[in-house]
User: What shape does this take?
Amino acid sequence: MNLHEYQGKEILNSFGVRIQRGIVASTPAEAVEAAKKLTEDTGTGWHVIKAQVHAGGRGKGGGVKLAKNLDEVQSISDDILGMMLITPQTSAEGKLVNQVLVAEDVYYPGDEEPDEYYMSVLLNRATGKNMIMYSTEGGMDIETVAEETPHLIFTEEVDPLLGLMPFQARKVAFNLGLSGVAFKEMTKFVSALYTAYIKSDSSMFEINPVLKTSDSKIMAVDAKVSLDENALYRHKDYAAMRDLREENPIEVEAKAAGLNYVDLDGNVGCMVNGAGLAMGTMDLIKESGGEPANFLDVGGTADAARVETAFGIILKDPNVKAILVNIFGGIVRCDRVAQGVVDAYQSMGDKITVPIICRLQGTNAVEAKELIDNSGMEIISATEFQEAADKVAEVLGA
Amino acid sequence: MSVLVNKNSNIIVQGFTGSEGTFHAGQMIDYGTNVVGGVTPGKGGQEHLGKPVFNTVAEAVEKAAADTSIIFVPPAFAADAIMESADAGIKVIICITEGIPTADMVKVKAYIADKDTRLVGPNCPGVITPDEAKVGIMPGFIFKKGKVGIVSKSGTLTYEAADQVVKQGFGITTAIGIGGDPIIGTTTKEAVEMLMNDDETEAIVMIGEIGGNLEAEAAQWIKADGNRKPVVGFIAGQTAPAGRTMGHAGAIVGGADDTAQAKMEILAANGVHVVSSPAKIGEMVAKVLK
Assistant: This one.
């Protein structure tokens, strides 16, 4: 589950990670109040107005701007709130900005030049251990750094049973070329960051940039935090941070019905049991000349109510020209699924406007095919995987 | 020979008396699997499905000579159940549970690293050696005995592959569902290696999906090992968009190397017979065995 920058920073701050302070606002008036309060609390003169959407590259799309007085806080917030922010990570239409973070200016002048670094904490799947990935090249796209100057990216793997050791935190600070106060600050920052990652059950932290201020403080200026959904039962307060406005509404509805659904751009909808077979079915749709309109795993129980909900969700997409049902019955009997499909078809009636190809294989597959063929419904039955694909191709060609 | 489980395995079920455990243990026993008992803390001394219930895995090892365990414990307690089994000396631990927090699995992986045990899963359909032992949730009747080994991240895709292989007139030695989570006990390469070293297995079906580098690692090992037996490969998720989770938590396309296309190219370059359509797995097996 992805969080907004301001939410991620709240979590970091609660574990003692120094952050660029800020207050979230939903209207320009709130933004001005937030700016005043922030000046009282932190003494900051200027403010940074940052769009809060689940996408990186916000600055490039005009979603992060510096305000040098309260009039500018007002006018910039007014521009950003309600805009469709387009970044390299959003779709072409962009994402609606509902909130801005009014943040303190941390690039103030001082004894030293400010410097930026990159730091993330994530799982190394190859070793099954968490690691800290960091670089002297802060504020840049890390993929570009990895491609052009891979020697500037360092990793530090952490022993799961021991946790991050002090020497590892020192190594990070040395590799970033720090000394004096900034060195000590960085070791504290790294330790606190790793503790926050573990205690919050996160699946990824990306802090870009980590800033060394002109007076040698180390802080997170941005925060991209992803939480492990499987661990949310341990963190009710984090679960409440979910912002449904950032998610596809059809996917939200599917989730509420217990269906695992991902919206895609194609013309053939599908309903499958099992994630792997669902992906395989999408691939087969492509092979037969179509494009998958969705990923949908109905899970272990495909009764009439579930099938009907699934059909309803698939048919919300006006691009869908056909629906392929692909169920491999194991513990779930195919004849029961077939009955579910027939019942759903009957109850939905005219709402079903596209051909349905129903492939049921496994336990009681023969009975299932008979049930569908004798139902009088316009459902095309198939038993073999290839046969189903051929029928999809036929329907698309017609 | 078959691998991991056979008719001589002494199997216990952790989470034996729960609804999932009860249903699937019943199916396993009906299949003829040698289930010697189950573990549910606090219910030790009772009998369930005609088998003894123990309080701890250690007790099941001591009193029923258990050497294999299958886990149906809910996600919040499953990591603990795996570690309990490893500590008690269970040799093969098969964890079916889906939705275990990744942080818990990081600990499990470190904990069992120096134990004499093999974990399969979690979030997997289990392991079946036809006519001998079904230690999982797969429909047993699809798997006929034969000479093709199957390694897969996905449950229903495993059934699909087995069904196609059987319809081509062949059968299965052992089918291993390794699971689709980011951290799993047995990797694709380790499962393939077991089947490569199994006398009865003459060909291997390897089914992967987007995300991670397990299939690439397996393919490189297969080539380094001299391509001793033909391997048929399929990677699910050719049409999956980048950065999205497709059901299995591990199936997120991250970098350029873990897309389906990239994996298929690596497999082919290492002598694996790659099929781009999941409907052609059986045909390809028939072709390589002729």
Q: What stands out?
A: The longest strand of chain A covers residues 202-212.
